[in-house]
Amino acid sequence: xxxxxxxxLRLYRQHITDPADKYTVCHDLMGLQAQFMPNVFYSLKIRxxxxxxxxxxxxxxxxxWTVRGTVHAFAEDDLALFLHDAAQYHSEDFKGYAIxxxxxxxxxxxxxxxxxxxxxxxxxxxxxxxxxxxxxxFSQFVLKKISEGICTxxxxxxxxxxxxxxxxxxxxxxxPWGGGMRELxxxxxxxxxxxxxxxxxxxPDFVPMGKEAAERxxxxxxxxxxxxxxxxxxxxxxxxxQARARELMAGLPLEKVEAGGKDYFYLGKLPKNVPDIPKCVxxxxxxQLMLGYKxxxxxxxxxxxxxxxxxxxxxxxxxxxxxxxVAGRWKKKGKKMTFEAFGKIPEKERKxxxxxxxxxxxxxxxxxxxx
Length: 371
Hints:
The chain is an alpha+beta fold and 371 residues long. It has helices spanning 3-13, 22-28, 37-45, 79-82, 102-112, 116-119, 132-147, 153-162, 167-173, 179-186, 211-225, 231-238, 242-250, 288-291, 306-309, 347-360; strands spanning 32-33, 61-65, 71-75, 97-99, 127-130, 190-193, 200-202, 255-259, 262-266, 280-282, 319-322, 325-333, 336-341, 366-370. It has three domains: 3-86 and 207-266, no CATH class; 97-184, no CATH class; 280-370, no CATH class. It has a five-stranded antiparallel β-sheet with strand order 1-3-2-6-7. A five-stranded mixed β-sheet has the order 10-11-12-13-14, covered by helices on one side.
């Protein structure tokens, strides 16, 4: 197999040249990374055979932390797959939050007036920011308020403050990268809504499927819908060691094909006569076609342009795929689209890119190029 054939297969299996309904796309790709919600809309827009609008793209989806410890938008019925730990499901065994800084402890004691009970939790130089009892109390309080329709982070912070939550407690409970709200999501109490606003919702009930079954299913879906891929690719996607990746692969009836001097593995029969590589595809930021494979060995992204897509701040920019190769990146703000070329793109091909953008986002009023 040559690299062009490999590219065509991946584009097909990732539904870029084989469009499907929204739920099929989300199931097969195990969700779409969702730090920035417009990327979910863009990812679905290029993969779905149904109309995807800013008003309906989140229907039937939820947002939670999944693979690689990152937030994804995915179908509600996959909660059991990603939140598979039965021991954590609806557990209220909260441990609280503490920091190992004496000066912060003193500040909390002097400024926030902790009770004497907090002193009992001070161990080994740690200063308690949110003691376990308070975390449990505010967790139950937050769940009650969300059930009453108070759903945004700012609204919840406001009602918690009125109910006696201190500033350090608030920083621990509402930390954007962790904290008590993430715990409630990870334990199956809450999810984020998939919408333009940052809103929480009570999680639908589900039965966790267990770690072993979940890992087996994640590996199965990967090698059915991301593959052909290498063991390194799977380890990169799943954020595990190559040894662990190969253990999971050993439990699957994988087939192997060679391309470019490397072994690629896959499940199922590879389709014949897949569609040609499109002239232009506008991938989303954090797109699975970029995140699903080891970026240093990407068959789509020339290494000299690696930092143009994967920047040092951890952002994955939206690429312009031209004839199956990343040739630049794009950005949409309101009715304006900006394209940044990574090299010389002839005027004829620029027109193709602009026409592709207009076909996807007819409301675009202005397009400009940066080189």
